[in-house]
């Protein structure tokens, strides 16, 4: 059982896109994220309608697609300081990012995990409240939502090497728990799903020789009907689809995967397991990976394994 260290939850992800206007048609109009700001660099800030912080997704136009970094929000600036020291002791490369480098966000401590991905810790970000309903006698939902009506940024799945060392980092330094894993017959962990709260996962990693690869960013929907409607919208807009709607074996969420115009994979899903710190990790055998990922098809399609940004 992990001692919690003061990391609360996923806070944001910065995604590289090849064309910002095309990306906005996808993330804002199709997925239904709310545009909240832009900055001098041309980055666009978005959020799911239930999120209280000002943004959870930052889009940056670049020559290559992928993920720049994923940030986790901590309970206080003191926790950020404490964890900065522990990350340095662990051997992570650290960069101090000043307040306001992201608009209305406090200072961030950026570090590189053994998988080659950049993560950030921060404690301060402007809170604008739930979009369209606020915090005082709120209505059930805003009436001007579009597209899939994504509720929140939920997690990322990342591909890279050194899963054991990365698990050690997230457990011992950051206070995450291992919820679910995929093991080979010789005892190698090839996939790991980690949470810092009660969700099925907040971050997941799959073993891959090339470091720093981005598989998908995932967004939460309310119901299976919403996931089916997302599938309809994907077809209506001729959006490139990966697979679904279907169910996962791992986490048991109901899901659909598709691609933004730059080739970054997205997921929208509903449901899924819950986790408490006294739960043992759920283990899947590697030869059952097809069923673990796509419970109905029971086989992995080639795109899911090979298309990364």
UniProtKB/TrEMBL annotation:
Its EC number is 1.13.11.2. SUPFAM superfamilies: Glyoxalase/Bleomycin resistance protein/Dihydroxybiphenyl dioxygenase (SSF54593). The keyword Iron applies. GO terms for molecular function: catechol 2,3-dioxygenase activity; ferrous iron binding. It catalyses: catechol + O2 = (2Z,4E)-2-hydroxy-6-oxohexa-2,4-dienoate + H(+). Gene3D superfamilies: 2,3-Dihydroxybiphenyl 1,2-Dioxygenase, domain 1. Its cofactor is Fe(2+). It holds the Pfam family Glyoxalase. Residues 9-124, 152-271 form the VOC domain. The keyword Oxidoreductase applies. It comes from the Bacteria. Keywords: Aromatic hydrocarbons catabolism, Dioxygenase, Iron, Metal-binding, Oxidoreductase, Repeat. Homotetramer. Belongs to the extradiol ring-cleavage dioxygenase family. This is Metapyrocatechase. It comes from Marinobacterium lacunae.
């Amino acid at each position: 059982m992990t001692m919690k260290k003061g990391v609360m939850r996923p806070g944001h992800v910065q995604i590289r896109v090849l064309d910002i206007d095309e990306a906005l048609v996808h993330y804002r109009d199709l997925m239904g994220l709310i545009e909240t700001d832009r900055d001098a660099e041309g980055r666009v800030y978005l959020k799911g309608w239930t999120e209280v912080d000002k943004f959870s997704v930052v889009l940056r136009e670049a020559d290559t697609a992928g993920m720049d970094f994923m940030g986790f929000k901590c309970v206080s600036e003191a926790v950020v300081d404490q964890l900065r020291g522990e990350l340095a002791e662990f051997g992570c490369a650290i960069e101090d990012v000043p307040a306001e480098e992201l608009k209305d966000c406090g200072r961030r401590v950026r570090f590189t995990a053994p998988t080659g991905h950049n993560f950030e810790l921060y404690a301060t970000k402007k809170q604008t409240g739930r979009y369209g309903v606020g915090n005082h006698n709120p209505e059930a939902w805003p009436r001007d939502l579009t597209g899939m009506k994504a509720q929140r940024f939920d997690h990322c799945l990342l591909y890279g090497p050194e899963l054991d060392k990365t698990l050690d980092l997230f457990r011992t330094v950051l206070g995450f728990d291992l919820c679910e894993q995929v093991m080979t017959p010789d005892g190698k962990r090839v996939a790991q799903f980690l949470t810092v709260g009660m969700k099925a996962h907040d971050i997941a990693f799959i073993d891959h020789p090339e470091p720093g690869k981005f598989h998908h960013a995932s967004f939460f929907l309310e119901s299976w009907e919403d996931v089916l409607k997302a599938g309809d919208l994907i077809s209506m807009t001729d959006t490139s689809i990966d697979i679904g709607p279907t169910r996962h074996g791992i986490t048991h969420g109901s899901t659909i995967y598709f691609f933004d115009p730059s080739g970054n994979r997205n997921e929208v899903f509903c449901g899924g397991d819950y986790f408490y710190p006294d739960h043992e990790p759920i283990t899947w055998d590697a030869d059952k990976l097809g069923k673990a990922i796509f419970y109905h098809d029971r086989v992995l399609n080639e795109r899911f394994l090979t298309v990364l940004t």
